[in-house]
Amino acid sequence: NQPPAGLQPAGVAISGVASWYGPGFQGNTTANGEIYNMYGYTAAHKSLPYNTWLKVTHEGRSVFVRINDRGPYVGGRIIDLSLASARAIGISGIGFVSAEVYR
pTM of this prediction? Predict the structure, then answer.
């Protein structure tokens, strides 16, 4: 997948443990008011602005995600990926990722 046309790396990167969320949240309202779709390429972050795009990389595989929710609420994790986003980069539980902000 790709970010919207015209977005470029912003020179801001984070890294740490990522997790995913899915079935129990499917159809619920996200923090920005959207309906959560575990098959979309979205993610939850504690402080990045909504609609921020990230290129998330795990073990050489990357996926572009858009921040539309808040979390994770488990200590030591930096991002919660949608089910589709996690699967795209090979995460089935938790995994170490690097994420680059695109603007």
Answer: 0.96
